[in-house]
Structures are given as C-alpha cells and as structure tokens.
Design a protein that fits this description.
The structure holds 2 protein chains of 2 kinds. Chain A is α/β, with parallel strands linked by helices. Chain A folds into 2 domains: 102 residues, no CATH class; 116 residues. Helix content of chain A is 40%, strand content 18%. Chain A is built from 8 helices and 8 strands; from the N terminus they run αααβαββαβαβααβββ. In chain A, α1 packs across α4. Helix content of chain B is 24%, strand content 30%. In chain B, β2, α1 and β3 form a beta-alpha-beta unit. The longest helix of chain B is centred in the last third of the chain and has 17 residues. Classes of the chains: A alpha/beta, B alpha/beta. Chains A and B meet through α3 and α6 of A and α4, β9 and α5 of B.
C-alpha cells in the first residue's frame, strides 16, 4: 500500500536519524582517527602512548563489532538541513524524535535523558526539549548527529568578555582546559564560538565541533598550541597532546560585547551525516 | 614491552606495594557504582562484601545478559561519597580523571585509585562478563552491576602512599598556565 506523502517523509526522517546514530556511535570520522594516530606518534611518555594505543584499539574493536565506541552514548544533538522543496513542519521534529527512540532500542544507546530536577529517566533519550534539534536551510536534505557525552560537555564554559579584551581569548580557552584537567577524556577537541549573543555563542561553539579536526587555520593552531603547553595529556596522565584541535566559528555581535564559548569534546568526537531518502 | 603487575580481587595488602604510574592488569569481580548507587549504599548499606572489593565508576550499556560497552565515568563526582566505602574495606577505586585530595588522603595505607582509559568502552567490555545486579531500579547507568574482569589494563593513578599522578600533572599544568597567561 502506498503511504501518504506525509507518512513517507516521517518514516524517511526517522530512519535517517537512526542510521546516522548507528554510524556516529560505532565509527569515528576519518579525520579524527588521523588526528589520534598523529598524536600517538608524537607522545614520548610510555603512559601517554599506552592510553592512545588503548583508544585506537577500542576504535577498531567498536567498528569491527558494530558497538558503541563509548558507553556514554551522549545526548542527541541533531542538525537538520532542509532544502526548499521539503515541507517543513513540527512533524519533521517528531520524526527526528522517533528516530532517536528507534536508535536507543536498536544501536542500542544508553538511556541518558532525565528530567533536570526530579532526575527521572524517560527511558528513550527523548523528553521536553530533547533531542536538541537545530534546523537550517540547505541544498541537501540531510541529518547530522553529534552525540554529546557528559564528561566533556560538563567542562564547557562561556565568558562575556569586554570588547577590549580580545587578547584574553587564548587564556580563557587554556583556563577552561586547566580546570577540566583529565575529566573530559583528553585529547579533546575544543569547539570555540566567538561573537553572536550569549546563547548563540554557545551554539557556535557546538557547531564548530562539526568541522574537520585534521586541519587548522593559523589562529586555531595558535590556540591549540597554547592549550598543549599545559601538558595535561591523554586522560590527564601527562603528555604532549591535550587537544587534538581547536576549531573556531564566529558571528557578528554587539559593539559592547565579546562573547566567547568553549564547548569541550572528548577524543570520541562522534558525528555523522546521513542523507534523507524519500 | 610494558611490565604489568597482575592483580585479582578480592584485594589485600599487595595493593600497598603499588606505585603511582605502575601499569596493572586486574581480574576478578568488580562492582560498578556511580552517584546514585553511592547515595543508596550510604542509606541502605553495601549489598556485597566490601572487604578487599573494587568499585568501578561506570554506567555500562547492557543488552540482556551482555555487557556491550563499559568504559569508566568521571571519578571526581564521587569525591565526597567515597570515604564510607574505604572505611568498610574497599581496596581499589577504578575510574577516569582522578579523584580529589581528600580521597588521596583516605587511600593512604589502605588502597589505590586505578585509572582506566576513558571512552574505551568496547575494549573494556571485551574483558568482562556480567554476573548480576543490585539496585536495578536505579536504571542501567546508575545500578550496581556485578562484573567479572579478565585482565583489564589499568594505570595506578593514586597509590597508598599519597602519590597522585593526576595531581602532579595538574600542578605542572597550573604552573604552565600562570607562566603563559597571567
């Protein structure tokens, strides 16, 4: 039986969401694996080399067995790219939620989503305001998922600097990592948002985590080198690689503001994009 | 080749000879416990024999009777919840990221903190088999799972003499930060 167009769209979006989660949770993007291998070749201490060797072995094992790389399968952060010919409505968001529920059962994902004050688990990784879905226009109808683990997310920070404090940005980023230490599972990727509004700056920092980590512009490289002088190293046990990369996104802001946000991402920098076929 | 000390639970005085930075292989039964399980054990008592036992800071992904993914969680969240366990004879805490000064003090002469590579959930699960569960109603992440380890590779993060690898690295990082940015 031919389904109504609306139902076909709903199912296609739910299916693509689930597929993106399966891919993101079990395999890391090639640029992240390249960055980890480079780091493993650079470390001089035996403990640091051993931590990176465990990480690379774990990535290979998860890929081979099609199992989640980390037991913290994260909270669902989703970027939905909608082209002009796709009818956009609230039902698309419901379809994304359905995809999260299916992925939770089938990948499977750990049910991580709870009510904030009662701490009651919804059991399927959805709840009010969750998944976190960002809709943007584009040419290709696609779903990008960024499962975000708590260990690293909890170490993220935002500062409303003064417009005259531009030179304080590297220090704020390095200080964020100093406070975090080994807790966010370094080597980390730092997504940095500069500009925008208070909330928009945090969103920029998260979107920066969608960028490839094996290339950096001179500004990003300078920030990354600054973080790596701390010597926190893999898992906080010391070493040369505290950050694999620092990635920056900027937006225009108020003449009286300089918001800076740092979204911390563990080495398991999971992301995956799947095209919606319908 | 790295020289590793093999340990099996229940643990005894052999943990007292370990030094921060030593690499070990741990086998035998361990009990997972996170925030909620600690609070529950404080209220209702420890549901297993704590003498020589090891606590694993972990909320695994379990499917049926299989452990699919079981890497460590951030141990520092349990800093203020750990004393009663060590007082009752727990000899090892396993997790990631290290623990606070107060825990390093409580471990003196008694036990060790063992660092497990964070995020390495499948590698860890490949060395585990599930033996049972306490407080299952707390949910998959927060329940106490009884797990048998078969040679899990770990590093001594804090030894029983007050040496703390994480604190040493953090102190050095702090020095570097103040030289470079203040």
């Amino acid at each position: 039986m031919e389904l109504p167009e609306d139902d076909r769209l709903y199912q296609a979006v739910a299916f693509a969401t689930c597929r993106a989660f399966r891919q993101a949770e079990t395999t890391l993007p090639p640029d992240v694996i390249r960055a980890l291998r480079t780091a493993a070749g650079r470390e001089s201490s035996a403990v640091a080399r051993n931590e990176l060797s465990n990480i690379l072995e774990n990535i290979a094992l998860a890929d081979r067995l099609a199992l989640p790389i980390c037991q913290d399968t994260g909270v669902p952060v989703i970027y939905l790219t909608v082209p002009p010919h796709v009818p956009y409505s609230g039902r698309l968001l419901l379809a994304v939620s359905e995809g999260v529920r299916i992925a939770t059962r089938e990948v499977p994902l750990r049910p991580n989503v709870v009510s904030p004050l009662k701490r009651e688990n919804y059991g399927d990784n959805t709840g009010p305001g969750m998944p976190s879905v960002h809709v943007r226009p584009g040419d290709c109808f696609s779903i990008t998922v960024l499962p975000k683990g708590a260990g690293a997310e909890n170490m993220s920070r935002l500062a409303m600097l003064l417009p005259t404090e531009k030179e304080k940005i590297p220090g704020f980023i390095a200080e964020t990592m100093l406070i975090a230490g080994g807790r966010p599972c370094p080597p980390v990727v730092l997504g940095v948002g500069i500009g925008g509004t208070f909330d928009g700056c945090a969103a920029l920092a998260k979107e920066a985590l969608l960028l490839p980590v094996d290339t950096m512009d001179p500004f990003e490289q300078k920030l990354c080198d600054a973080v790596n002088t701390l010597g926190i190293g893999p898992m906080g046990l010391g070493g040369e690689t505290t950050a694999l990369a620092v990635k920056v996104r900027t937006a225009a802001c108020h003449t009286a503001s300089l918001p800076v946000a740092v979204n911390v991402q563990c080495w398991a920098a999971r992301r995956s994009t799947v095209e919606v076929e319908w | 080749m790295v020289n590793r000390t093999c340990l099996t639970t229940p643990l005894g005085d052999e943990v007292l000879s370990l030094q921060a930075g030593d690499q070990v292989m741990l086998s035998g039964i361990v009990y997972t416990a996170r925030d909620e399980a600690h609070l529950r054990m404080m209220e209702e008592g420890i549901p297993f024999n704590p003498e020589g036992a090891a606590i694993y800071h972990c909320g695994p992904v379990i499917q049926g009777s299989r452990i699919l993914a079981a890497g460590p969680t951030t141990s520092a969240r349990m800093n203020s919840l750990t004393r009663f366990l060590l007082d009752r004879g727990i000899r090892a805490l396993i997790g990631k990221g290290g623990m606070g000064n107060e825990v390093a003090g409580q471990l003196k002469g008694r036990g060790v903190y063992l660092a497990c590579t964070g995020g390495c959930a499948v590698l860890a699960a490949s060395k585990m088999s599930l033996k049972g569960v306490f407080f299952e109603e707390l949910g998959m992440a927060e329940a106490i799972w009884i797990i048998e380890l078969n040679s899990l590779p770990l590093v001594v993060g804090i030894d029983s003499h007050g040496n703390d690898l994480f604190a040493d690295i953090a102190r050095e990082a702090n020095k570097q930060f103040h030289q470079g940015f203040t």
